Amino acid sequence: MKYLLFLAMLSLWLQCADTHEQTSQTQQSTTKMDKDKDVNQEQIDTKKSEKPNFRYVDGNNNTYLITPTSLDYQPIDQMMSSSGNYDGGEPVTKEIDETQYAAIQTAIEAAIKNTAAHIEKREMGSGWISVKGGGSYKIAYRAKEKAEIEKTLKGIIEAE
Question: Could you tell me which residues are beta bridge partners of residue 66?
């Protein structure tokens, strides 16, 4: 029963998380990727001169909102956890500098560019990248790029 409640609440949260416009853009990008199976390099290349916002959901469903100047960690709690036991800790919002943002952007771009790490349907333990004004990418549980994103984000969150 907890699992069904979790799925219903997660579904509702995901529906409300983006504005209607962002959701439409993400759905269009995802549909195009599903049909073509050929990721257009121009679409995913977030060029170093551009500084897009990202949303990353890790394998435990903790959410990281990344802008060029901030990192917002929104952890999952026991009530929302599929196991009923996992707790992602306390929410954290940190200012980040250009070097930290560049490290995050590099890790995320590596995951986006490695289409072999992409999966069609999000599975337990997988990662999920959303690029504002870009696409949405589901990253396999065991992908090294997923591990690198999470290592980079956790390193910044835990740094004093």
Answer: 54, 71
Distances in Å between the Cα of 14 and the Cα atoms of 47, 72, 74, 140, 156 are 27, 17, 13, 19, 25
130: left (phi over 0), alpha (psi -120 to 50) or beta: beta
User: Which residue range(s) make up the domain with 88?
Assistant: 2-158
Helix axes 144-158, 98-113, angle to 10 degrees: 160
To the nearest whole number, what is the mean pLDDT of the chain? Answer: 79
Query: Per the structure, how many domains does the chain have?
Result: 1
Q: Which tens digit of pLDDT belongs to each residue from 36-87?
A: 434 444 444 444 457 999 999 999 999 999 999 999 999 999 888 888 888 8
